[in-house]
Write a structure and sequence with these properties.
Among the domains are: about 1-75, no CATH class; about 335-460, no CATH class; about 465-550, Elongation Factor Tu (Ef-tu), domain 3 (Beta Barrel), CATH 2.40.30. It has 1 helix and 23 strands. The chain has one helix at about 1-15; strands at about 305-310, 320, 335-340, 350-355, 365-370, 370-380, 385-390, 395-410, 410-420, 425, 430, 435, 440, 445-450, 450-455, 455-460, 465, 465-475, 485-490, 500-505, 515-520, 525-530, 540-550. The strands form 4 sheets. The chain has a 15-stranded mixed sheet that branches. The N and C termini lie far apart (about 150 Å).
Length: about 550
């Protein structure tokens, strides 16, 4: 048996260098047909490693494809391995189970490893890498590790791929899903688990992409450059479909996510399309954005028209909202700021419409202009106007209003108003309830349906009336002698000498008794002179009422 094995060993070694082939077949044993131990010196072609077996096709040119070593296995019901490479060394800086090199100056394609698999009702894998580790050290484990290293002098237009994977069909073969690269991570981790992690650390002036994905086919199906899904049954604090983080310095812009859509057909084009959905009880956000750090902080910057609840925005507007808006209080009172043409940030650079008093139950809303609230309304509808109020066509004031002065240029209906300064009413004005005014001028119709308190009144350009006082006095009317004048005094507080007085009895004093004079004879005293036109005297009348109107001019 020893002689047979020695003969076969010599035969196979010489066959590896021969131009012709020979075949040796042994069965019924688990031992290798050929076993070589030790290594020889370095040899051609330019291989520096010492080796046990070298498969070398020689230097003679041929038009056929050549192979240094071919391993072929197809008769196992458990597993067939065409070639197994095992490297194990406790003291080596690196152990490589299989090293393949493809090179050639004029070759059209150089491939270090070409993995090809045929599949029928099973799983086919062209190249598969696996790492096992049970050490306690800080190991780095790569199922597959690929490096593309351009050297000095390489053409600047060349392309370098650390990993290039293509999934394609031949002769119209149809599959359910075609994936260029599918990576999975199943591990107990203390930090992070990455299905795919891409890192770009380049030099020169070219752009760098940690990941670059392109969907560009002729199929009629939807095209998605990046499709990310986060699933699982574990209860976690946060799930993220896509997370992009930018760090480092940028002289122009830094984008956590930059997306662009350029559609040449009639369909809608979305730079970003976001949907927040789910059956959970938590809030759903289509977009959640925040800004932190120094400098200008904008959670969102939208350069163009915005429609909320609508896809149609008018030509002259930049924002349209279909529905009701709610503006909440932040650091300042809720409201809307309207800038002037300066577009500055000073409190005088425009106007503010919003809450004046923010206390719950006592809110007032108003207009801020030139550094102060000029007009505001409280919860009861009471209105305060900071200075002059100008009322135009068909204006109606329906609640308590206070203003410094009021100018009515056309028809106005006012229920209750308090005027503290000079006012002009050039239109038809109707006061339904109470009017209180220190100074007023009416050049047209004045209708007062309620009480009017006017400090100074000028009607039709005549004299000024400073005060009007009404009083009712109950007294005993004296007896009158026939054909005689009789005077009687009545006390009216506030009456002064020089005031104009109107006096009327509440009931008739008799057809033969006339009132010849009514005047203020002394402070708080009004005198009425009576004349009896017939003979005979009258008896005194008890509880007789006189009504007085006193005008102070």
């Amino acid at each position: 048996m020893k002689k047979i094995f020695t003969f076969l060993l010599v035969t196979l070694i010489f066959s590896a260098y021969a131009q012709n082939t020979s075949e040796t077949t042994l069965t019924g044993t688990t031992l290798p047909i050929l076993k070589v131990k030790g290594f020889g010196p370095s040899s051609s072609p330019s291989i520096t490693q010492k080796m046990s077996i070298l498969g070398y096709t020689g230097t003679q040119s041929t038009t056929n494809e050549t192979a240094g070593i071919i391993g072929y296995s197809d008769n196992s019901t458990i597993g067939n391995y065409g070639l197994i490479g095992l490297a194990k060394g406790d003291n080596a800086s690196k152990n490589i189970g299989l090293y393949a090199y493809g090179g050639g100056a004029i070759s059209s394609t150089n491939i270090g490893i070409l993995g090809e698999s045929d599949v029928f009702s099973s799983t086919g894998t062209g190249v598969r890498g696996k790492v096992n580790s049970n050490s306690n050290a800080t190991d780095l484990m790569y199922g597959g590790y690929f490096i593309s290293t351009p050297t000095n002098g390489i053409n600047g237009s060349a392309k370098s791929y650390g990993l290039y994977a293509t999934s394609q069909s031949v002769n119209s073969g149809t599959v359910a899903t075609s994936t260029g690269i599918e990576a999975e991570s199943f591990a107990w981790t203390t930090l992070n688990s990455y299905g795919v992690k891409g890192t770009s650390a380049g030099f020169g002036t070219g752009a760098e992409y940690g990941g670059y994905f392109l969907a560009n086919g002729i199929s009629s199906g939807n095209k998605t450059g990046v499709y990310a899904t986060t699933t699982g049954n574990a209860i976690v604090a946060t799930r993220t479909g896509v997370r992009a983080v930018v760090t480092g310095a940028a002289t122009t812009s830094a984008y956590g996510t930059y997306s662009e859509s350029n559609n040449s057909d009639i369909g809608n084009s979305y730079g970003g399309y976001f949907v927040g959905s789910g059956t959970g009880l938590g809030s759903k956000y289509g977009i959640y954005s925040t800004a932190s750090g120094s400098g200008t902080l904008l959670a969102a910057y939208l350069d163009g028209k915005v429609g909320i609840g609508t896809s149609s925005v008018s030509t002259n507007e930049i924002l349209e909202v279909n529905g009701r808006m709610r503006i909440r209080r932040g650091a300042f009172a809720s409201g809307i700021w309207l800038n002037n043409s300066v577009n500055g940030t000073d409190i005088t650079d425009g106007a503010f419409v919003g809450l004046n008093n923010e206390t719950s139950g006592s809110e007032t809303v108003g207009f801020w202009l030139n550094g102060a609230f000029r007009f505001f309304v409280d919860r009861a509808g009471n209105t305060t106007i900071g200075r002059n109020a100008i009322i135009g066509n068909n204006a109606t004031v329906t609640a308590n209003t206070t203003t410094a002065s009021l100018n009515v240029s056309s028809t106005a209906t006012i229920n209750t108003i308090n005027i503290t300064n000079s006012s002009t009413f050039s239109g038809s004005t109707t006061f339904n309830n109470t009017i209180s005014a220190n100074d007023g001028s009416f050049s047209s119709n004045l209708n007062i349906g309620g009480q009017a308190t006017v400090n100074t009144l000028s009607v039709g350009g005549g004299g000024t009336i400073f005060k009007i006082k009404k009083a009712s006095v109950t007294s005993t009317l004296n007896s009158f002698a026939g054909n005689t004048f009789t005077s009687q005094n009545f006390t009216v507080a506030g009456a002064a000498v020089g005031d104009v007085v109107l006096a009327t009895p509440q009931v008739s004093i008799g057809s033969d008794i006339m009132i010849s004079e009514v005047y203020v004879s002394a402070a708080d005293t009004i005198t009425i002179k009576f004349y009896k036109t017939t003979a005979g005297s009258t008896f005194p009348q008890n509880n007789f009422v006189f009504n007085f109107v006193v005008f102070k001019i």
